[in-house]
Amino acid sequence: MNALHNNLIKKEQKGLSLPEVIIVLLIIAILVVLALPQISASRRLSRFSGFQRQISTSLNEAKQNALAHKTATTFRYDNAAKRVIIYGGDLGALGSIGNRTKDFADSGLLPEDVVYGYPPGAAAVLGDGSNITGLSADTVDVTFQADGSVINTGDGATSKALYFYDKFGRKEGAFAISISCADGRMKTWRYSKAVNRYIE
Fold it and tell me: Which helix (H) or strand (E) covers residue 152, if one does?
């Protein structure tokens, strides 16, 4: 009886051999290496979603400022500096200390990772008929009037559409925001690879 008990204790105390430990560690290492690209892509997509919210929030902020203060307020996307500037009315002229500036770093993206435009091969026209507003001197301005419209004296009644994508994710995470000229109503569109177009 004691011999049987001693054999059981020895078996319970016996651990993994060195080759078994090495094999387990190799399997874990392989699984980690296989999972890293997907984890990295998922984190990048999450950060790009945060960037999309930042652009939408800034556009809304400019519109609300125009409505609240009954004065034209401009949302500017600066492609060279990779930032957003909101100015006009109570925020002061462009370059004033009262301007609201938001850098892309706030959303966790590297500025060089953000591309203004749409991915190669993507169908650009949105469901509401909007198309990309081109850069002028490497910037895009959306000026909300006191009534919330974006009818500017320079370009007349023209709806705006801003397009962005991640240079690494390409079509994954690509989005556009269209702004109606008549009332400044905004719609957010995400690119769908399944149908090869932007959907609301």
Answer: none
